[in-house]
Write a structure and sequence with these properties.
The protein has 22 helices and 21 strands. It is α+β, with helices and mostly antiparallel strands. The radius of gyration is 68 Å and the shape is flat. The two termini are 109 Å apart.
């Protein structure tokens, strides 16, 4: 049967609207045609009638111009009066022809126009041209006779009368056309109302038809739903809809909903029935039989088996507990392991299997007449706490529907709990029987325990006595623990006191350094100026006095620096800055610094550098140079004759000890400073490396010194990852050897270094006999180098410099030295005076700023100069005698351009000032 064409509500509404739109479109076309016709007639009236009246007036005007020109010329004789006459005479015929052509559809009016034309021509021939010709001939007499009769007046009156009659006819014709136009307009208006009424009726008819078809169908659906509702749960009725539209879709959806609800009701009813049948069952096999019977009845299954998990030596084994439609006990295998066969695989994967394409070899379902092959197999694992405790397999002569599959799936969701409960109850019953048997055994054993209890009581008395002894020992241990805790607190208090003492010591040394460097600064500056004797006012003895004062001041400064360095090392506040150092320049540096010393003492200086020494090593160059300078200074100090030899070589790999190999380094260097001096007794080798110690008192009296140099060198060597060893013999000389690693990967552990030093100290004597590496002797001529100082007059001349210092001695010394360079000097005693002078005075070229001052120190003054006065480019050189850790960084952060520590070296000061003044 041919499928019925679908005609939806939307299509019906759209077709209805299309019909209305088509009617409106037709009405619009008819109305537009009528309006176009009216527009044409209106345009004809406007264009034709106005043009007729306009041409008539223009012809009449031309005639008037001819009459006026004729009379003017006759009266005055001026030729200018003939211009309008001639112009009108040539123009009126053009307008007449246009008017005559315009009236080609009106013969009566054309006939009147012809009469008017004849009258005009008669006037021109009878009155116009003859009078003008007489005037041109100056025939006054005939003109007078002509005007006495004046035949032209009669012509003019006739012409005016004819024009009036012509206009009246045209006016009536215009009025007639206007009346006809009004009548047509009225007819169009009536037709428009009629068309509107027609479209409205058509629209109402379509709306009634469409709404009736929709409402009637909805009423049918509503009535069907009410009948189903009134049936009190009976959902067999279905909605029937004849129309093929959305209402039919609604009916189909409602029928599907009813079918779904009916299926859900069936599902819930069967689930409730299955749940109630579990009650009162105490064994697994009866539960399995009851379940298979109930499920087979609900789903129409014809064959089934129920397996429950049991644990044995082989693992989890599923054993058959019940079967449905069993034939001589051959309904399925008796047991299977997990993962064995489809049923074992379903248990392993914990998922349901539905097989509809059953193979021919599958178990047949037996009946009274024969065996039948099943069409569908349903395998369901039963879970409890996410573990498979049972598996059910069903076979049916028909395929299991989705609803039947869902029923079984929902039933087994709680069935696992039921199986587990039955198994637990069976286990409890078994345990109860066992417990009863055990109770009897326990009763017999309790009598034996009674006897043993008496024996234990005697043993407990013995244990009590032992426990009392242990408590006494515990009390003794607690007392000792309290004593140890008190000793620990005492040690912590002493450690805290030591830390405070170290802090007080550092602060004391810093303050003493400041107090010592401040007067020492002026002593060094003034003595250096006296030593130079630029004015040539001092005798040679006075110059020598100044030189001795300057030298003594430098010695005192070196002593202060040694004490500060030793204090920093002991307190652990000395920074080690690792960087690349050029070893190829070391021989030249040693020669430059000590060649003049060797020349003065008439001692030969030898420098030997092995070829295998790397050009670049990683260490703290400043501390390295300080160690080498101290060792060389000591060598020259205690050597009266002979030579001082510096040997630089790389420690060969076969000489490296085990501890030295553990240090993360590129190579080990050995710098030996040997002299032919007085030598050191062997028992004094360790003593001289201690602070303020020398070999003996005679050495102190003869050679001087504080005994700090070697102590500082030893500590610096340890900080750099190395150590210093000594080999000496009294009267023959000494050899100080610095062992130092190249620290390209950072500092090393001091304990490793100390252990390595001990190993090397033990093996030094054994290695002295070994051949040394190839050494190249560098022969440097010992000649003093005279530094050439540049001429500073152009840089310093007329520069304004402000000295800010609270010590008058420093101000005097600096002012005197700078004034000799041609500079203009101003002074301030603290930061407040400095700021006031900078606000009130002319700009300064440079400021020398002391740090430790009363009222306002140098840090705050520099911050205000940079911040409040906005002088960011003004050079400020910070001067301080408190040469402690991070002083330079603090000065630069506060706003200083550069930093110099006191006592000042004038050459260094002038060099720094030159750089900033030139820049």
């Amino acid at each position: 049967m041919e499928k019925k064409m679908r005609f939806g509500i939307k299509s019906k509404i759209i077709i209805g609207y299309l019909i209305v739109i088509v009617c409106l479109f037709i009405a619009f076309i008819v109305l537009n045609s009528q309006i176009s016709s009216l527009q044409k007639e209106r345009n004809f009236i406007i264009d034709h009638d106005i043009e007729v009246h306009d041409l008539t007036n223009r012809i009449e005007k031309h005639l008037l111009d001819m009459e006026t020109g004729q009379r003017g010329y006759i009266i005055t004789g001026e030729a200018s009066y003939l211009e309008p006459y001639n112009s009108a005479a040539s123009s009126w015929e053009k307008d007449y022809n246009a008017l005559y052509q315009l009236l080609n559809n009106n013969p009566n009016q054309q006939e009147k126009l012809e009469k008017i034309k004849g009258s005009i021509q008669d006037w021109i021939e009878a009155a116009g041209e003859p009078t003008i010709a007489l005037k041109k001939e100056n025939n006054t007499k005939e003109l007078q006779q002509f005007f006495e009769k004046d035949p032209g007046r009669q012509y003019m009156d006739d012409i005016r009368s004819q024009f009036t009659s012509f206009r009246n006819v045209e006016k009536k014709s215009t009025e007639t056309r206007a009346t006809e136009l009004d009548e047509k307009n009225q007819k169009i208006k009536i037709g428009l109302y009629g068309l509107l009424l027609f479209v409205t009726l058509i629209s109402l008819a379509i709306a009634i038809v469409l709404s009736k078809s929709i409402v009637n169908t909805i009423k049918e659906v509503t009535q069907t739903i009410k009948r189903i509702t009134a049936s009190k749960g009976e959902l067999k009725g279905r909605i029937k809809v004849r129309s093929n539209d959305e209402i039919k879709d609604l009916g189909i959806a409602t029928n599907a909903l009813l079918e779904n609800i009916e299926e859900r009701n069936w599902l819930q009813t069967n689930i409730a029935h299955a749940v109630t049948m579990y009650q009162g069952i105490a064994s697994v096999d009866k539960l399995a039989e009851k379940f298979l019977f109930t499920v087979s009845e609900m789903t129409g299954a014809s064959f089934g088996a129920f397996y429950v998990r049991e644990e044995n030596d082989k693992g989890d084994l599923f054993v058959k507990q019940a079967a449905f439609a069993d034939r001589k006990g051959d309904a399925g295998r008796e047991s299977f392991l997990i993962g064995e066969g489809l049923i074992g695989q379903a248990a392993l994967e914990k998922r349901t299997l539905v097989i509809n394409d059953v193979p021919d070899t599958y178990q047949l379902i037996a009946s009274g007449l024969g065996d039948v092959k099943p069409k569908s197999i349903f395998i369901v694992p039963v879970l409890f706490e996410d573990e498979v405790i049972a598996v059910i397999e069903l076979a049916s002569l028909h395929e299991f529907t989705v609803l039947e599959q869902e029923l079984i799936s929902q039933v087994i969701e709680t069935f696992g709990l039921t199986i587990n409960g039955v198994i637990r109850r069976m286990e409890i019953a078994r345990l109860l029987k066992e417990s009863q048997a055990m109770t009897e055994e326990l009763q017999a054993q309790s009598e034996e325990l009674q006897t043993q209890s008496e024996e234990l009581q005697m043993q407990s008395e013995e244990l009590r006595m032992i426990n009392e002894q242990l408590e006494e020992r515990t009390k003794d241990a607690e007392e000792k623990s309290f004593e140890l805790e008190a000793a620990k607190e005492d040690l912590e208090e002493k450690a805290h006191q030591l830390e405070l003492n170290s802090q007080y010591k550092s602060e004391f040394l810093a303050n003493m350094s400041h107090e010592l460097r401040t007067p020492l600064n002026s002593i060094l500056i003034l003595s250096e100026m006296l030593e130079e004797n630029a004015a040539k006012t001092l005798s040679e003895d006075e110059e020598e006095y100044a030189r001795i004062i300057h030298s003594s001041g430098k010695d005192l400064l070196a002593l202060i620096n040694d004490i500060l360095d030793l204090s920093k090392v002991e307190s652990g506040k000395l920074d080690v800055l690792l960087a690349e150092m050029n070893m190829s320049e070391l021989p030249d540096q040693i020669e430059r610094n000590f060649s003049h010393v060797a020349e003065q003492k008439k001692v030969q200086l030898k420098i030997n550098k092995a070829q295998d020494v790397p050009n670049i090593i990683h260490t703290d160059e400043k501390r390295f140079q300080q160690i080498v300078k101290n060792l060389l200074s000591n060598a020259f100090k205690f050597t009266e004759s002979g030579c001082v030899t510096v040997s630089i070589q790389r420690v060969a790999d076969h000489r490296l000890t085990t501890a030295m190999r553990t240090v993360d380094t590129d190579c080990w260097l050995e710098i030996a400073v040997a002299d032919t001096g007085i030598g050191i007794p062997k028992e004094k080798h360790q003593l001289i490396f201690e602070a303020f110690q020398q070999a003996d008192g005679a050495t102190v009296r003869k050679y001087g010194g504080t005994g700090l140099g070697l102590s500082i060198c030893s500590e610096f060597a340890k900080l750099l990852g190395g150590w210093i060893s000594l080999s000496s013999e009294v009267g023959k000389g000494s050899t100080f050897t610095l062992y130092l690693p190249s620290l390209s990967n950072g500092l090393v552990d001091y304990e490793k270094v100390n252990f390595a030093y001990e190993e090397v100290a033990v093996s030094i004597e054994e290695e002295e006999a070994e051949p040394e590496a190839e050494i190249t002797e560098i022969d440097h001529p010992v000649q003093p180098v005279e530094p050439s100082l540049p001429d500073d007059e152009n840089v310093f001349q007329d520069k304004r410099v402000l000295i800010v210092d609270d010590d008058q001695r420093n101000i005097f010394a600096l002012k005197t030295a700078l004034a000799k360079q041609g500079m203009t000097i101003m002074t301030a005693h603290n930061g407040i005076e400095c700021l006031e002078m900078m606000k009130d005075s002319e700009p300064f070229d440079l400021i020398l700023m002391d740090i430790m001052m009363p009222q306002m120190d140098g840090y705050e003054a520099m911050q205000k100069i940079r911040g409040e006065l906005k002088l960011v480019d003004l050079p400020i050189i910070a001067l301080t005698a408190k040469a402690m850790k991070n002083d330079r960084e603090k000065c630069l952060e506060a706003g200083a351009s550069d930093y110099i520590s006191k006592p000042l070296d004038l050459n260094q000061l002038f060099s720094v000032m030159r750089v900033w003044l030139v820049n």
